[in-house]
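Input chain follows. Return structure tokens only.
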Amino acid sequence: MIRPDLSLPIPETITSAHFIGVGGSGMSGLARMFLDRGIRVSGSDRADSAALRDLAARGAIVHVGHDAAHLGDADTVVHTGAIWPENPEFVMAKERGLHVIHRSQALHWLIGGRRLVSVAGAHGKTTSTGMIVTALRALQVDPTFVNGGVIADLGASSGTGSDELFVIEADESDGTFLLYDTSVALITNVDPDHLDHYGSREAFDAAFARFADAAREAVVVSADDPGARAVTARLTHRTVVTFGEDPRADVRLTDVRTDGPVAFTLTAGGESVPVQLRVPGAHNAVNAAGAVAVLRVLGHGLAESARAVEEFGGTVRRFELHGVERGVSVYDDYAHHPTEVAAALSAARTVVGEGRIIAIQQPHTYSRTQEMYREFAEVLEALADHTVMLDVFGAREDPVPGVTGELVSNAFHDPGHVHYVPDWQEAADYTARIARPGDYVITLGCGNVYQIIPQVLEALSRTEAAAV
């Protein structure tokens, strides 16, 4: 892993940029925006993808695989923290003395002093960012935006707008959210994560407090999340707006109903409005409350903000239906932290009816798995009817002896609720055997677990359900 060096200078002018790891939703979104600015763009990734093909269609030069020759005439190289220091393109860029900047610095360059809404938090920030962007467009505001996931109705994770407003998902995982000159900060929650970077919960909370207090206009923060409340207690900001089910919240959430797409009531400033979203899950009611609170800070009324948020149709890899085979619905969700897994499974439970939930879990990173395997097992055992456990997706980390999917499965109290299957085809076949019409299968993880879905659908098509 390459930790971002935010002290490195950001060039004033960029004419040709090369993106290492351009296939990710965040990086491809940045690359599209560079193209929108008339900048020559090239990029590489380890595998072909729809994102690479889309960039090529827009005029970028893209490569599958990494090679120093791919740099071409680039004057600036943009990278993520997920690449290895030995990456040949990264090494050559350093040797040639090019500007080598982290993706957060590239985003900072794109923002360029515009009025910025930054959405941060351990969970929910991609959905919350998508809600804000969708609602602003419904309110006839045309913001520029960069999100960590594709907004389903827009088919993109980024877009160049005509108004002064810029909306971003701000990444707290490596501290880069402190780089931006934020006007309005939204904190969805402060659940401890990424302690491999911060070292302690105290440092994690302190970073969020710095992020919030630096906001030039206002801080919007959860009134319910214990971590967010702890951060709020540290703030010195003059304008703090809270949201949630807490009776003291400035934008209060009540009457949450989850029997289908979530419905609820929002109250603020003595006014109450009913809201019906297009997406399920009580967690999305909370996300919507935060988005409406931001819209009110930006000058929009409660009722019009609520109606605008109702337009949100979800983001890719957030409880996304991929297919139905033999009466079994197969979904995918990006959830990779116990809290996120709980939210995804709880949302599924509200709409599955009499069917069962079969989770296919791919733990993400060895450090998180080693630290939280008991919490993962507890959530999965409580909220899924059965779990098919894959092995760890290591991402940027080297393997840790003894830290596998089996570590999670062994932590289940009832071994009959989980099956550890490191081989993907065997996992797909096993899932198909135990699935019955009406069941939901949901893949969980922010690695490549979604790639097992075609195997699951194919296995369902040719396999009869076992008597389980």
